[in-house]
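Section 5: illustrative case.
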């Protein structure tokens, strides 16, 4: 969305009281999983300050648990960016226990997340994401980037082993694959290796069970869900918009993909879910978007009817 359009849209939502209405009518006692990548401490602090009196912060493991009458929020981060280490004082200040889904073969290494490497940026990351996995790796290798090579001169984009060790008492580290491929563009062996191998690596790194997973780019299918179950995971987080409760499919947990540099008002607007409408429209998923909201209002109607005096 263009900045001016966004500003008009955000102000209209806020003036109309949409965030408050959404918390009361849709969020209710469910869990919103917030998805960040690499926000600054100042941005995250502003967001948590806005939320702290409105919702209860819970760990991701409670995402599909029974409600307690209050809106709840679980804070998650994808990829394991080195900048996440600077957020630790904010987690402690707000009593938030976040989940950081790490690329387990990239963090704690002299490596760069492939999509952040200048080679990939030059070759058009969006095009590479859509390619078959072996063809993408072959093209990157031909251009001079190998994901499994340790490189003394690499731009280290992931958390270091020492940073993970420091954060371990306050953060749940879970899996976001080994190297961040597009899973649906991997063959069966590549896909299973990324899922099962990552689980082993995360457990080795942090010395705690790895049971939760986040799909790279939010892209997944039935095969990925089946393999996650075989590999021993208990939940998987998508980037599909929505709230979670005890009836949610644990391998299709919904989330709110928050832009890392969001102002507080844009953050509040994103938490309504309405800002994601253009993305659905672009992807031709109008029917799915409408069904989601119809589904919610239908269950709301059923609830309000049940609560009416007979
Ligand atoms: Zn990611």
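Designed sequence:
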């Amino acid at each position: 969305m263009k900045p001016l359009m966004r500003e008009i849209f955000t102000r209209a939502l806020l003036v109309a009281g949409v965030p408050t209405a959404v918390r009361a009518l849709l969020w209710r006692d469910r869990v919103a999983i917030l998805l960040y990548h690499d926000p600054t401490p100042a941005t995250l602090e502003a967001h948590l300050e806005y939320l702290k009196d409105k919702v209860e912060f819970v760990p991701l493991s409670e995402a599909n648990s029974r409600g307690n009458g209050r809106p709840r929020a679980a804070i998650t981060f994808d990829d394991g960016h080195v900048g996440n280490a600077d957020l630790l004082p904010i987690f402690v200040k707000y009593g938030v226990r976040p989940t950081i889904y790490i690329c387990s073969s990239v963090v704690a290494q002299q490596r760069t997340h492939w999509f952040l490497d200048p080679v990939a940026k030059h070759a058009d990351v969006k095009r590479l994401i859509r390619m078959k996995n072996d063809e993408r790796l072959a093209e990157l290798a031909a251009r001079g980037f190998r994901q499994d090579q340790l490189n003394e001169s690499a731009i280290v984009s992931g958390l270091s082993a020492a940073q993970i060790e420091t954060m371990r008492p306050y953060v749940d580290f879970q899996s976001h694959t080994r190297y961040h491929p597009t899973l649906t563009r991997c063959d069966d062996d590549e896909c299973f290796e990324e899922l099962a191998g990552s689980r082993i690596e995360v457990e080795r790194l942090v010395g705690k069970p790895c049971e939760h997973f986040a799909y790279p780019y939010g892209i997944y299918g039935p095969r990925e869900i089946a393999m996650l179950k075989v590999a021993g995971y208990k939940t998987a987080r998508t980037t599909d918009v929505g709230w979670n409760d005890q009836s949610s499919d644990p391998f299709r947990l919904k989330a709110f993909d928050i832009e890392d540099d969001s102002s507080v008002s844009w953050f509040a607007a994103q938490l309504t879910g309405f800002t994601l409408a253009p993305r659905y429209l672009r992807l031709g998923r109008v029917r799915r978007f409408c069904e989601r909201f119809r589904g919610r209002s239908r269950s709301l109607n059923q609830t309000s009817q049940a609560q009416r005096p007979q």
